[in-house]
Amino acid sequence: MGTNNDYIIYVENIVKKYDNGRTVALDHCDLKINQGQVVAIIGSSGSGKSTMLRSLNLLEMPTSGKIFFKGTELTSKKIDVDSHRQKMGMVFQHFNLFPHMTVLENITMAPVILKIQTKQEAEKSAMKLLERVGLTEKANVYPNMLSGGQKQRIAIVRALAMEPEVMLFDEPTSALDPEMVGEVLDVMKELAADGMTMIVVTHEMGFAREVADEIVFMSEGRIIEKGTPKQIFENPKNQRTKNFIDKVL
Amino acid sequence: MFWDWWQNLFVDMSSINFFNFSFLPRYGYAVIQGVEYTLILSVISVLLAVLPALMLAMMRISRHKTVRCLSGAYIAAFRSTPILVQLMIIYYGVFSVIRVPKFLIFGFIDSTRFIPGVVALALNSSAYVAEIFRAGILAVDSGQMEAARSLGLSQAQSMRLVILPQAVKNVLPALANEVITMVKESSVCMVLGMAEIMFTAQTIGGSTYISIGPYMLAAFIYFAITYPTSKVIERVERRMRRGDKQ
Predict the structure, then answer these.
(1) pTM of the entire structure?
(2) B153 and A110 in contact by Cβ < 8 A?
(3) C-alpha to C-alpha distance for B76 and B70, rounded to whole angstroms
(4) Is A115 part of the contact surface with chain B (CB cutoff 8 Å)?
């Protein structure tokens, strides 16, 4: 029984309600994530998995419950959430690149504005990151000139430019054409291999099985079952998990 | 009986009167100054309205209910009363307390009338422009704000660096249309004796006894300014929309 200091992310009993409590998106969920762990959250649409992920950096404010990031309670009223968000990179289903900025500006804007790096330093490290994802030649183009897969790789680089300690992925491949899913997953695999702590909401069961250390299955706002990919995919204990796995595999 | 009336109608109201521009050689210069006055008045009014409008728009989407209501009340008040009434209240009310020093702007515009007029038009316009800005801000995809916040930017930084640049680009055509509206609306300033197009037409009519011609000319001038401009804006808007598609 560890305290919340032992985990990089520690979620305690969070509830999220919409419409004055008529809709319950998250129903008393707990989550503990270790440094360097890759966690995949799976479940059918509307199961609350995106809400769970978006709660972790408070894009959704939980109705009740506590969220700790490296022992600091983010849900506390006194906390400056912005400074903690800098350490939690996020990648969205629809990329959300800034269309009025070039690729390089997209990547360097936050570190420069938040005075983490000078413009020169930021551009230098941005080019290094672009090299890692094989997109150096796109540095000076605008996002509308990129394919979906390229956009998502840039979005990952943009998040990485803040040198985050955790990366949150919200269905990063769901809006992509099938032939582009691979290039994005490859970047994510590399990231996982480098020891990045990752929480991934995904429908890519192959990826979850291969890369994740832990699978979290959610249904109707509840965490139904957690375990290693082997346990969840081959030997699920809960009937609902079993039904879901049978359907998607 | 009917035929007498019908025929007299055409004698009294001959088309020659409508197109009697014989005052032009003598008053042409005054007409040109009137056009300049109208253009200066409307462009400056809208430009002055931009900053207050931006503030009103931000207040309108604020989280605090009082702030939202304050801005909402301002917008409602200025959009639901005639601009002529606003002009009168501001000129005779506000500017009877505040004395404007007398000097000439651009060599022919009297400051004691121009400044109250511009202030009234700008206050009115800011209510309309605020709604334009609000629509522009809300039209930016909510994912943009989320992406900016997830990088650690504050609400204000995200607004300034991510949302507003996109919103402003979207509302430029609507803003240009507001200038066109203002070119027409600014004609109410004639009641304060501001020498814009309508006042000039009235003055010419009074001193030459040509009653319809000057107003017909005013109508042509307004049309010649607003119609082509609105067509150009339409075209720019269409091209912008095409550019947005990826």
Answers:
(1) 0.83
(2) yes
(3) 10
(4) no
* pLDDT, tens digit (0-9, with 9 covering 90-100), for B65-100: 999 999 999 999 999 999 999 999 999 999 988 888
Question: What contacts 24+ positions apart, CB below 8 Å, involve B101-110?
Answer: B105/B40, B106/B36, B106/B40, B108/B33, B108/B36, B108/B37, B108/B195, B109/B37, B109/B40, B109/B195, B110/B194, B110/B195
- Contact between residue B123 and residue A74 where contact means Cβ atoms under 8 Å apart: no
- What ipTM does this complex have? 0.91
| pLDDT tens string B15-38 | 677 888 888 889 999 999 999 999
Q: Is B154 helix (H, G, I), strand (E, B) or coil?
A: coil
Query: What residues of chain A lie within 8 A of the CB of B154, using their CB?
Result: 82
- Determine the distance from the C-alpha atom of residue B40 to the mean position of all C-alpha atoms in its chain, rounded to a whole number: 11
Strands in chain B per DSSP E: 104-105, 109-110
Q: For tokens 């947005």, name the residue.
A: B244
Here the tokens at position A231 are 């346990």
3-state class (DSSP) for residue A210: helix
From chain A, the residues in CB contact with B149 under 8 A are 59, 82, 85
A155 chain-B contacts, CB cut-off 8 A: 147
C-alpha to C-alpha distance for A143 and B239, rounded to whole angstroms? 19
What 3-state class would DSSP assign to B197?
helix
Partner A contacted by B150 (CB < 8 A): yes
